[in-house]
Structures are given as structure tokens and as C-alpha cells.
Design goal:
Layout: E1 3-6, E2 10-13, E3 18-22, H1 36-44, E4 52-58, E5 66-72, E6 78-82
Antiparallel strand pairs: 1-2, 3-4, 4-5, 5-6
The structure holds zinc ion (ZN).
The site of zinc ion has 7 residues, from loops.
Length: 97
């Protein structure tokens, strides 16, 4: 089980959180113009890297607030926690593969 540090509540067990998937997904600028295939790509296709992954998490059993996490998918090490709407800290993805 992961120990996740909520930026508002401090370290808590993973069971208190909900994973919201990959972070920094760019929404379509003109949604009405997308084809079904383009919508499917936007909704379903995500990166699945071996190594550094930027994710959104929600503290559902605590403050209910969203935040971003940089996590190594191989070691499960949480490398950084940072606020929604901000860019991730500088991390070298080659270091986490
Ligand atoms: Zn919290």
C-alpha cells in the first residue's frame, strides 16, 4: 500500500484516495469538431509508461481535494506532490525507468 502525502492533510494510507488517472491531459479546443475516433482517443487512450508517470489523485476520505503526483510505476515511489493547475517539478524521466 502506498503512503500518499496529501498537500492539505499530510501522509495518509492509499485507501483514503482515488486515482484520477493521468495528469495534464489537454482537452479538445473545439469539441464539436471531433470525430468519434478522435473522441475515443481523447477519452480512452493514455500513456502507460514504465517509469515516471504524472497522475491526479483525490483525497476522497479526507479533504476531498484534488492534487497531482509524480510516481515511478516500477518502484511505486512517489517523487513529488504538487497542486492542480501547476506544472510538475523538474524530474528526469530517464532516471525512473
Ligand atoms: Zn487531504
Amino acid at each position: 500500500m502506498l503512503l500518499i502525502t496529501c498537500p492539505h492533510c499530510g501522509p495518509r494510507a492509499e485507501s483514503e484516495f482515488h486515482n484520477g488517472g493521468e495528469a495534464h491531459i489537454e482537452r479538445p479546443k473545439d469539441p464539436a469538431s471531433l470525430s468519434d475516433a478522435e473522441w475515443a482517443e481523447f477519452v480512452f487512450l493514455r500513456d502507460n509508461p514504465k517509469g515516471l508517470l504524472l497522475e491526479r489523485w483525490n483525497h476522497t476520505q479526507g479533504c476531498r481535494r484534488w492534487f497531482n503526483v509524480a510516481r515511478d510505476t516500477v518502484t511505486y515511489e512517489i517523487l513529488a506532490v504538487y497542486p492542480m493547475g501547476s506544472q510538475p517539478p523538474a524530474l528526469d524521466p530517464r532516471r525512473y525507468v
